[in-house]
Amino acid sequence: MRRLPRVITITVLVATFSLPAACGSGEQEPSQARPAADRVTWVTGFGAFGREAYVYVAQEKGFFEQAGIEVTVQPGQGSGENLAAVLGGRAQFAAVDFTATLMAAAGGKAEGAVAVAALHQRTLAALMALDGSGISRPKDLEGKTVGDTASSVISMMFPSYARLAGVDASKVKWVSLQPAQLAANLASGQVDAIGQYVVGQPTVRNAAKGKEIKVLPFGDVITDLYGSAVTTSATVASGRPDLVRRFTGALLKGLAYAVEHPQEAARILVGKQPAQNAEVAAAELALMASYVRPADGTPMGAMTRERVERAITVLRTAGAFDEELTPESVVSFDLLPKG
Prior knowledge:
alpha/beta, 13 helices
């Protein structure tokens, strides 16, 4: 009974954004009537960096309009906050690192959240340090200070990463920073390393005035993990499956266009977010291209039950959680892109 208010809140929200903007008088000819666009909110994975440009591309190119959707974009603060936004009804869709979803679901903190498309076929999680800092391998992190956002999947994954990489996690100090502070704090020496997606290397290098960056990808140690996924609530997934398919289809068209035309996508991003650097944004998108397309030729956004099951096994073996978890509890397989 205590969970009833959340269900009611989300259900009311779904009903609200699916209603037409206004009721007609009945005098308009059917051929002239245009259905009102569905209005939804999308939360980016992390801020408004180059890696997030694809949603703005989908807006600019009319992909959402063609799908009958009007999208409001909100910069995200990390996977934990993004999950809360979806489950709390503040957004219908969000980019959430799939590993964070698995870990939160195992801990009973993501009940009702489901992935409906993979944005990245491999995890982008990593740690970054300045070249010459003394950090060149995972073991070098001991005795160092790492900065990351409070709800980042990277800090959530670190204990498992450390265990597999032979690092004593108790000897690594973590401090909480805002997304925009990470690269600047690393460049100034306030922290020894930061949590960052691998595609963020150009952004970090730019903040460090061109200094080389050492990247420690988690994917080198923890295998079989997807990166971020389009995530929604089970209420939206079951109540508006057509909306989910239309939204993910348009968003993935934007993703495909962005990685194929990184320079143009970067210009579109800067038009929406003037504080961003077009050259750096384009470099991020170029790095991301190899992560978004399945290697086996299946449609962009695809996920398989077998890989999800392997990811669960890998994380349980690494000590991320002990609870039982089924792929169907975290992925809406019938809504995944079919090509």
